[in-house]
Each structure stands twice: as C-alpha cells, then as structure tokens.
Amino acid sequence: DQMRCEFGENSVVIARVLNDTAIECTSPPSYTETISAVPLKLVLDWQVHDGISEYQHEKASSDMLDAGLYFEYYEHALALSVYPQTGPSCGGTVLQIQGKFNHYPLVYCQVG
Length: 112
Fold this sequence. Notes:
Shape: elongated
Number of helices: 0
Number of strands: 10
Distance between the termini: 47 Å
Helix content: under 10%
Oligomer: single chain
Radius of gyration: 21 Å
Order of helices and strands: EEEEEEEEEE
C-alpha cells in the first residue's frame, strides 16, 4: 500500500513522504481549460491488482483524509506581444509585454 493525493474526483498521484509530518504530491494536469478549484485529499489505502494500481472507492472513509483543502488550477501565462522587438546589445531597453498574466503574482523576463 502507498499514500496518494487525490485531486478532484478522478486524478490520483503518488505521494512522496518527506518526513513524519510532510508529504509531497505533484499536481496532475487539469482536465478543463478553465480556472477551477478541486478538493485535495490524502488517500491512505491503495491496492495493486495484476501490476495495475487501482484506488478502491468502496472502502471505508477512514482510508481517505479529507481536511477540506482545495487546489486551484489556473490558466498558463501567455505572452501575446513584445514592444520594442529590438534593442542595442549593451542592454537597457525597457520592454512592454502584453498577454495574460493575471494569476501570476511574480513575473520575470529572461532575454537571450
């Protein structure tokens, strides 16, 4: 049996145990293109049949830890235009980049 994290109803990933009080889970891709918050639960019981992992939903609720947590998916950042598109090799050109960045509190530019 292994610990897993369940993102929403159908996406389950392996949990990496960091220590006695912390685990790490990598979020799977969202199945929708829109911004959405999904319930995040810790699955405590996972069974393997014929080499294929399969979560047993019919098991008792004690097999899943539901702390009322949510994980929010948001749209990818998207750069639509850059002005100006050229500048001197010594640097110092201020760029204006337009696009969709509304869900990113910190955005950095890397040129080159």
